Amino acid sequence: HVATKRETESLDQTEEMAIYHHVCRHSILELCTEDLMSDDWTLVDYALYRLNEVCCKDSEKRSTSNRIRFVKAGGHALLVGVMKKFVQSPDIQVSACRLIQRFVEHENKGAFAELLTSVHGLDCIVKAMQQFPSTDEENGEVHEYACGALVALVCSSDKIAQRLVANPGHLRIFLLSIRAGNKVIGKCRIMN
Q: What whole-number distance in Å separates Cα of residue 41 and Cα of residue 182?
């Protein structure tokens, strides 16, 4: 029996829902250690989505507690590791940049931003922008969220801003992204 297109789509949706429910049942620490280290990009993408929900969209007290637990579990290093591991996936790059930006914006002292840059997070964001040119319409979302993450990082710390400026390659790609037009900077996902 050869599966029809409708049966295949139904199986794909069923599989995606099973992965989504698997991720939703996990605690924040399990997401950090197990799901973000998976080789299955779909599971990783859902884990990033769920982390965004529990660390940035839940009640303020609960979100803050979850962000602290995530960082204590080494989440900043796992996030950079995910970006490196799935360098070819625009979906993962968008989800990771979105999470980085929201984490940095929810902080008041820039500690997460400093931790992230200490494990080469700035490099990974710039790499995502290089990997997916903003001139390609399909990759525009990567630049939108990467640009938002860079703006959040630079605004969080003078030290990080100096690192960006000190690296001509990083500064160049950031400025090219901005110059690529009002399309990118106008859509830059800056969430205040």
A: 31
Question: pTM, whole model, 2 decimals?
Answer: 0.77
CA dist., res. 171 & res. 175, Å (int)? 6
Residues making up the chain, counted from first to last = 192
* In the block, residue with structure tokens 């929201």: 102
Q: Could you give the CA distance from residue 10 to residue 6 in angstroms, rounded to a whole number?
A: 6
Cα separation, 20 vs 52, in Å, equals 14
> pLDDT of 8-52, one tens digit each?
455 566 766 666 666 666 677 677 777 888 999 888 998 898 888
Quickly count: other Cβ atoms within 10 Å of residue 31's Cβ.
Answer: 25
Residues 6+ apart with CB under 8 A from 184: 134, 140, 143, 144, 147, 177, 178
The C-alpha atoms of residue 139 and residue 129 are separated, in whole angstroms, by 9
Tokens for 39, please give them.
């080789």
